[in-house]
Design goal:
Length: 146
């Protein structure tokens, strides 16, 4: 038996199969994230390159972005399944907080704008940026907490 000193934390060893699965799904998630980001950039900036006279190319870029986005969702689901229970809980808690913040702030903005309380237009990109910041903060808090 191994003696554990006061204050020392003992971690359960992770078997090689689950470690390989986690690395494989992480690599897949990175690849799908990069592909989705590239397809989003193409859909957003492409019309400026090929001009407004090519609506078929623009629609193709938008559809490609949606298809790659579905692939990213599948890859993220596989990534979540490969994580150990504690990592999955931390990540899902952070995602829940970010989603909740997005809904509350997003709908709060819609109501305030409809009431005329928002004097300037706010770019839609502020919402995912806010959700990203909330997610990262909640994730770090979860890591510290557990």
């Amino acid at each position: 038996m191994t003696r554990i000193e006061k204050g020392e934390v003992m971690h359960a060893p992770q078997d090689a199969g689950s470690y390989r699965a986690e690395i494989r799904t992480t690599g897949g998630l990175v690849a799908w994230t990069l592909a989705w980001t590239a397809s989003l950039a193409l859909a957003h900036f492409g019309p400026g390159v090929w001009g407004d006279l090519q609506p078929v190319a623009t629609w193709a870029a938008v559809v490609a972005n949606l298809v790659v986005g579905v692939g990213w969702i599948v890859a993220f689901t596989r990534f979540l399944r490969a994580l150990d229970e504690l990592q999955r809980k931390i990540l899902q808690d952070a995602l829940a907080v970010a989603l909740g913040a997005g809904w509350v702030v997003g709908f709060g903005y819609v109501v305030a704008d409809a009431a005329g309380f928002i004097p300037v237009d706010v770019e839609i990109a502020v919402l995912p940026a806010l959700m990203g910041a909330v997610f990262l903060t909640a994730f770090v808090i979860g890591k510290i907490r557990y």
